[in-house]
């Protein structure tokens, strides 16, 4: 299935309809009879809160254990699949050398492992460093694109997809850090479990840099908890861009990476889903990456995530409600959509109107339940042992700060929704800076 041919005008109209619907939902309870204005918030808190609580409690790190799969002893190398590692790189002179050296140290037959780096019009020393590394690492292949070639990261990955032959694709960001035994654990797990894709838990390497990076480290742990819980309760797992193992055959069946989206990973997750491909998730080993270190960088990153996340629902909703998905998957996506995208917009409208009318916000019961369960997910993800960088240990102060930190989505989601409704979109690759 190729990427959907969706025009920007169509997306704007759909986003505007979504925005109007949320505004109506946020405003309607304020004109209800006295004593009934809280009924929608209480009802949704019961149903959506019940879904979210079941999801978090369904999480189990031990159900994704690869410790018994770390040896290829007794397996003929000829029977192992070829793995192509794909990295789209733009202006990554700070981290690209480390990444290549790390791939060289992976414990996997050299004739079965290739590294493909797409230099996407870098203006720094990325290209020069890669040319030097090619002399030392025969498995390194470098592809070059012009800076204005278009398609963003998806365009770069599609260029590599045409040149590769491997059965599996491991997509990494340039700042990724992985363990030497990653493929000795990941490939057997994927093939024994008959998965079509595996997403590794994302772990933050610079969590001790500041309070902001610490909160992002906790957020990544919480996200993995929710992902595992969704899968265990019959829902879906979504790809996260960095540290995703993909079966090449399925990627080609989906038409490659969608160059008309700002989040290739989220878009590909839905195309895998409607093609009935199975996506799994591993808690350990993780893929390690840098968290952004400034508020401005966080704002840019989260705007892109929010836009791509909402965009995929608008693009694929006819297929998401079709018989291509089972009832558990549809329920999972509906609840997630309402909590992640509808609730922030509805809540902002609700707060604005209640401040004007001097009444109690109608949806505060749902917001309280959602934030409380988020705190539980933080606690689940941050406690216990995990491989990779240390995850900040949970305590009441950290959990409270982490929950407060989540309120940034209640600003970003409404802002992005308004922007998508009114402004034409220019697809550009706004990369995250990596410091190494």
Q: Using DSSP, what is the number of strands?
A: 7
The topology string of helices and strands comes to HHEHEHEHEHEHEHHEHHHHH
Helix-strand category: alpha/beta
- The CATH architecture term of one domain is Alpha-Beta Complex
CATH class of one domain: Alpha Beta
Report on this model:
By secondary structure, this protein is of the alpha/beta class. Helices cover 50% and strands 11% of the residues. It has a domain of 188 residues: Alpha-Beta Complex (Spore Coat Polysaccharide Biosynthesis Protein SpsA, Chain A), CATH 3.90.550. The chain has 14 helices and seven strands. Strands 3-2-1-4-6-5-7 form a seven-stranded mixed β-sheet, sandwiched between helices.
Topology summary:
Elements: H1 8-27, H2 39-57, E1 83-89, H3 96-104, E2 113-120, H4 126-134, E3 140-145, H5 152-163, E4 168-172, H6 182-192, E5 197-204, H7 211-232, E6 244-247, H8 248-253, H9 264-274, E7 279-289, H10 295-320, H11 327-357, H12 364-382, H13 396-405, H14 409-422
Helix pairs in contact: 1-11, 1-14, 2-7, 2-12, 7-12, 9-10, 10-11, 10-14, 11-14, 12-13
Short description:
This protein is of the alpha/beta class and 436 residues long. Helix content is 50%, strand content 11%.
Question: Tags for this entry?
Answer:
single chain; 436 residues; alpha/beta; Spore Coat Polysaccharide Biosynthesis Protein SpsA, Chain A; seven-stranded mixed β-sheet; 7 strands; globular
């Amino acid at each position: 299935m190729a990427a959907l041919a969706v025009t920007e005008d169509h997306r704007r109209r759909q986003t505007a309809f979504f925005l109007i619907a949320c505004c109506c939902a946020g405003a309607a309870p304020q004109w209800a009879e006295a004593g009934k204005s809280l009924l929608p918030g209480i009802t949704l808190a019961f149903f959506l809160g019940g879904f979210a609580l079941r999801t978090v409690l369904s999480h189990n790190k031990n159900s994704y254990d690869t410790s018994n799969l770390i040896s290829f002893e007794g397996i003929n190398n000829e029977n192992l699949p070829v793995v192509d590692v794909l990295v789209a790189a733009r202006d990554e002179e700070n981290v690209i050398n480390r990444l290549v050296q790390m791939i060289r140290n992976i414990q996997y037959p050299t004739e079965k492992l290739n590294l493909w780096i797409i230099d996407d019009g870098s203006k720094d020393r990325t290209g020069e460093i890669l040319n030097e590394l090619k002399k030392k690492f025969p498995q390194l292949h470098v592809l070059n694109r012009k800076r204005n070639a278009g398609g963003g990261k998806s365009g770069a990955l599609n260029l590599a997809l045409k040149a590769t032959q491997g059965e599996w694709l491991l997509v990494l960001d340039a700042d990724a850090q992985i363990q030497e035994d990653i493929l000795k654990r990941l490939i057997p797990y994927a093939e024994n479990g008959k998965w079509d894709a595996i997403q590794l838990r994302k772990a933050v390497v610079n969590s001790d840099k500041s309070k902001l990076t610490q909160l992002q480290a906790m957020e990544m742990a919480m996200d993995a908890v929710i992902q595992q819980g969704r899968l265990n309760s019959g829902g879906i797992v979504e790809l996260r861009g960095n540290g995703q193992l993909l079966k090449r055959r399925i990627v080609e069946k989906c038409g490659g990476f969608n160059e008309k989206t700002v989040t290739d990973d989220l878009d590909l997750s839905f195309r895998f889903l409607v093609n009935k491909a199975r996506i799994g998730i591993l808690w350990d080993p993780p893929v390690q990456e840098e968290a952004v270190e400034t508020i401005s960088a966080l704002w840019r990153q989260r705007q892109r995530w929010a836009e791509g996340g909402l965009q995929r629902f608008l693009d694929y909703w006819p297929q998401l409600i079709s018989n291509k998905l089972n009832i558990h998957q549809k329920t999972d996506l509906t609840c997630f959509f309402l909590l992640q995208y509808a609730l922030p917009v509805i809540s902002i409208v609700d707060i604005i109107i209640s401040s004007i009318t001097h009444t109690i916000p109608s949806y505060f019961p749902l917001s309280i339940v959602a934030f409380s369960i988020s705190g539980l997910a933080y606690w689940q993800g941050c406690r216990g042992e995990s491989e990779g960088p240390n995850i900040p240990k949970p305590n009441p102060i950290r959990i409270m700060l982490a929950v407060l930190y989540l309120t940034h989505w209640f600003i970003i989601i409404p802002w992005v929704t308004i922007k998508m409704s009114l402004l034409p979109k220019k697809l550009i690759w706004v990369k995250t800076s990596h410091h190494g």
